[in-house]
Amino acid sequence: AAGVIQSPRHLIKEKRETATLKCYPIPRHDTVYWYQQGPGQDPQFLISFYEKMQSDKGSIPDRFSAQQFSDYHSELNMSSLELGDSALYFCASSLPRDAGTPSYNEQFFGPGTRLTVL
Amino acid sequence: LAKTTQPISMDSYEGQEVNITCSHNNIATNDYITWYQQFPSQGPRFIIQGYKTKVTNEVASLFIPADRKSSTLSLPRVSLSDTAVYYCLVVPAFQKLVFGTGTRLLVSP
User: Fold this and answer.
1) Are A92 and A107 in contact (CB under 8 A)?
2) Interatomic CA distance for residues A43 and A3, integer angstroms
3) B46 min Cα distance to partner chain A (Å)
4) How far apart are CA A61 and CA A63, in angstroms?
5) Mean pLDDT of chain A
6) CB contact under 8 A, B89 and A103
7) Which residue among A78, A85, B11, B92 sits deepest, i.e. has the most Cβ atoms within 10 Å of its Cβ?
């Protein structure tokens, strides 16, 4: 079965550089979520998109921005990178709300992008 | 969002049943109780979700008392591959997931 695809899987950047992370949700999934997980930390919600519109926003720095495109893939853009941005970034997607699934909070996570800022 | 409290760690042996209890005293009427599993350097994986009473699927059972202020995830006959972090989340439907401190389960031979 198709899964969430994230690219790149690993990324090394210098401080103050920019980075773009990409997420391709499972086909027919209409909602995309971004989470950040620092070393030894629990995942933290950053931002989400439903039908290409921002639906919720969490603890996402102003240096970060994201969008969802017409094909439902999403990109997380990160500028002025800091050492503390080093983390695993997960993208997750979920089924349409009218899909009839009983699992209203089932999100399918991708393998993550490991960002290292030097 | 309701805050959850669960044990930081648990130890078990292969073949045993493991029960992880989560407290969520401030759960709201529109909240669902959802459990996720996470292996190191992998994304969390959905295990089970419930609203009240008992829910069972092919990998786990979820017990929820009538007052919904707690829940228990039951993993039957665990194996070494069940060693992971287990998160209890209490969130409304179709909303962001708010992860607290999960339970690190270690299964030994």
Assistant:
1) yes
2) 19
3) 6
4) 5
5) 93
6) no
7) A78
User: Is the CB of B67 inside 8 Å of chain A's CB atoms?
Assistant: no
Instruction: For residues B44 and B99, give the distance between their C-alpha atoms in angstroms, rounded to a whole number.
Output: 10
Query: What are the pLDDT digits (tens) for B52-76?
Result: 989 999 999 999 999 999 999 999 9
Q: What is the pLDDT of residues A66-106, one digit of tens each?
A: 999 999 999 999 999 999 999 999 999 998 777 666 667 88
Contact yes or no for A44 and B99 at CB 8 A:
yes
Q: What is the distance between the alpha carbons of residues B3 and B24, in angstroms, rounded to a whole number? A: 6
How do residues B5-60 score in pLDDT, each as one tens digit?
A: 999 999 999 999 999 999 999 999 999 999 999 999 999 999 999 999 899 999 99
- Chain A residues contacting B via beta carbons under 8 Å: 4, 31, 33, 35, 42-45, 48, 56, 58, 88, 90, 92, 94, 97, 102-112, 114
Domain assignments of chain A as residue spans, ordered by start: 5-117
User: What per-residue confidence (pLDDT) applies to A101?
Assistant: 61
The CATH code that applies to domain A5-117 is 2.60.40.10
CATH number of B14-95: 2.60.40.10
Task: Determine whether the interchain pair A31/B43 forms a contact, defined as Cβ–Cβ distance below 8 Å.
Answer: no
